[in-house]
Amino acid sequence: MGPRAFRPEDRHVFFGRAREARELADHWQANSLTFLSGPAGAGKTSLLQAGVLPLLDPDVVDALPVGRVSSGTRVPVALRGGSNPYVFAVLSSWLPYEAPSGLSDVTISGFLARRRVRHDQYGDPMPTLVAVDGAEALLAAGRDPAASDDLFAQLATALEGDRDLRALVVVREDALPMLRSRREKVFRRAVEYAVEALEPAAATAAVRGPARTAGRPFARGAAERLVEDLLTVRRVSPLGDETEERLPLVEPLQLQVVCSALWEALPPDASVVTAGHVRDLGDVARSLADFYDGVIDEVARDAYHGETERLRARLREAFVDEKGGRKDVVAGSAESAGLPDAVIRALAGRHVLRLEERLQGGSRWRLSHDHLVRALTRGEESRAPAGRVDPAEYRRLAEAALREGYLERARDHARTALRHSGPDQRLRADLEQLLADIAYRGDDLDTAVDHYGRASVLLQSLPGAEGQVAGVLTAISQIKMAQGRFESALRDLEAAALRRPDDAGIRVELAWVMWCSGHVNGAVDMLDTVLAEEGDERRALRARGEIMADLGRPTAALRDLGRLDWGYSPSARTAYALALALEGRVDEALDLVPPIEHETSVTVLLRVARIRDAAGRRDDVASLARRALEDGVRPPLPRPLVEVAERLVRG
């Protein structure tokens, strides 16, 4: 046990949430949309993974793995332009063993429609159960709002179009009001289920159950004593006055921390955990203070210039009152207390701070628990020495930093994890992919290719990893495409196709590379073949439709693109608009042109130039075409379009 979420395979050691698991399973199966909410650290993910999923009968419901809005390390981040990264991450979680190329540019409705419908013993279609965990990440500062809105809209569309679909969205309680306020009817009708910390009896069961399963049970009264210690908070004011308070609930995170510390401290020959062990080895206040010390050190290192003592002083000043209790800070005023918003978010994400809504209005930040006060007020000499390096923990920190956009921090954590990963080839491959993703986000494309290459070599030595190898080779190809290295990209994709010859997504990518490198007929033939075999394959339709528009064949372009929902993609939208303009429907085309002030796709810029040229608005046609031809732009203009752009520049 330790401070991490329980997984489905941990169900045999997950105790104390039987009632909540049954109730939530019933809500999920009975309602179109359910919101599971609760404070950070309340165990929402554990409840879902180890409590609810094992209760679902596979002969009655078709439950997909839990979806996450961040891709982690399995899926390369080099996506085809216009793909929604959040939707891509969720779909990759729902179908973790499919090659990433098979999910690029796929909508939620499209993904669900292509799955085989499962039927129960009576021949009726089973309800499909899907979940999205960590939805607060879609509502936080720093995310892509258009992509977030698109994911929610896609989920609403899927729910409204499929009466057998059931969705569960897991969200931190402070982000729940933003979900409630969404305009889609299905969101307003959602059933809400709130989970709180553990009541004493449930906490006692959560202590006893795993120990009994591990063959080292608690003696009578020992588990109760540990829980009572967790419920008791002793405060010492700066003047030395002591007070004691009994809390009503036990935080699951703190229960894990304390049990883990006690378990590690037990003598090897102890067959039963006694009250004496709890008294002598299970110092609750010390264990929690040690844990929160480490968390505060981590936040200081990552978001406060490494100034740990200064951060502690600011936290004491802002959040601890003169009696040694917790003090509130009005949300929004943290900056004046010397805590920038990035630090506040980091502390909240690591369960140090909690945002609370007040009945009289307004929000307040406060320490998430009274036990945190000791971590902030005890002297440096009483802190525990640093423990061993856990590569899984540093990998988690790296992924969290990457989600928050702190690339240097993410790279440092990932490198630390890699140095201590030992001989585990799969872990090392995942970490190499993570380092590649970080480098890609930082626009260090050569380094990204190097890390993806090392990941590919590691994966090739593992059984059953052909799909992952193909995905990594596809990512390498996409990066080389961005660099204009079309021929090299073509070789990598051909190698990926050899490993996954039935993967339509890889063949579509192959067609894109052929098109960009000037092999026009080969690209079109490849897409025709995919569509002949796969039918209305979304990625192939989009690719062929865009190429047809760029080639000046509007009828064929409109035929393909008109069968798609391309609302999120500026590339597909401008291709459709260009086809309209080439058919003489220039007013319709101009209405579809998206804002281009910050547009970086040279293909999109050239299409807008061609649309304006067709409409007779030639004042900025040459400048747009010139932007499309600029040196150093990534990815560069496909070779068949260079002459088109040069002609527009000449006027």
From TrEMBL:
Q: Residue ranges of the Novel STAND NTPase domain?
A: 2-375
Source domain of life: Bacteria
Q: Gene3D superfamilies under this entry? A: P-loop containing nucleotide triphosphate hydrolases, Tetratricopeptide repeat domain
What protein does this entry describe? Tetratricopeptide (TPR) repeat protein
Q: What is the lineage of its organism?
A: Bacteria, Bacillati, Actinomycetota, Actinomycetes, Streptosporangiales
SUPFAM superfamilies attached here? P-loop containing nucleoside triphosphate hydrolases, TPR-like
